[in-house]
Amino acid sequence: MDIACPAPARSLSGNRVTAIRWARIFRALGHAVQIKHSPSFACGNADLLIALHAVKSARAILDFRTKHPDRPIIVVMTGTDISGDLNSTQAVSVLNAADRLLFLNDQSHLQLNRRYRKKCVSIIQSAEPTVKPNKTARESPAVRVIVAGHLRWEKDPLRAAMAVRKLPVESQICIEHYGGSLDSQLEQAAIRETETNARYVWLGKRPRWQVRQRLASADLMILSSRVEGGASVLSEALIDCIPVICTKIPSAVGILGDSYSGYFQQGDTKELRRILLEFENDQGFRSTLFDQVKVLAKQVEPAQEKLNWKTLLGKIRLPVTSL
Fold this sequence. Notes:
six-stranded parallel sheet, alpha/beta, single chain, about 15% strand
């Protein structure tokens, strides 16, 4: 099988991380797998194409469908796919070409035109647990909060920084932000924020293992995205039982559930600030979030994702009801 991925080799993007993890799963299930860069995709003789990102992998999807009209295609719908123009000629062609439309959460498919929903399936991404550093050995009692996301519009990456500007003097909340720059204006804003906001530091792009270690030893993670398909960092926080404060967007609700207690409305800085202070000062609220993520950790275990893929791949050759 081929995996078409818009992110190049050695990229630290979520798409590439996902492609590498899936390749491992498929090989463990007995399949031969190649990861191919979508922009330079060369259609070979694979018996199945899994394409990350409907729009960015459109050429690969349509080329594969032309060369192999009877072979299955699974198109993975990302956050930017869902929030983009799915009525364009190219997008409609991709949606029609796909045998399955895969969502990385249990809610986002509801944003799709009803005529395509018979093709929709969902698999929540897994993550390997991290060997956690000893929190008791930390040098300060600060409430360490992690933001892990590149500087791009979709991530609303400076929302956490804005939320901690006006915290009470006695608050010990501090933000560590990891992620590369994909927007020069946001980069300059992150640099200015680091210089002027004592509670925030942008640390740029770091090795993934290093970010995982920092997340595993943190008290809390903030995910402030405007749109997501199914953030891999959310699964990474859950598997290590790190409480999350998250925007209430469909992709998050499709992983955390309607009753999760750590949501804030996207873009609402005041609400995020209030929840941060509640986490710092209310042990009951902190314990509630911890108990919830401890339960949710089961759904992001690697064995569960492997089983879900095994089930889907076992069914994929069955015809999909005509639209």
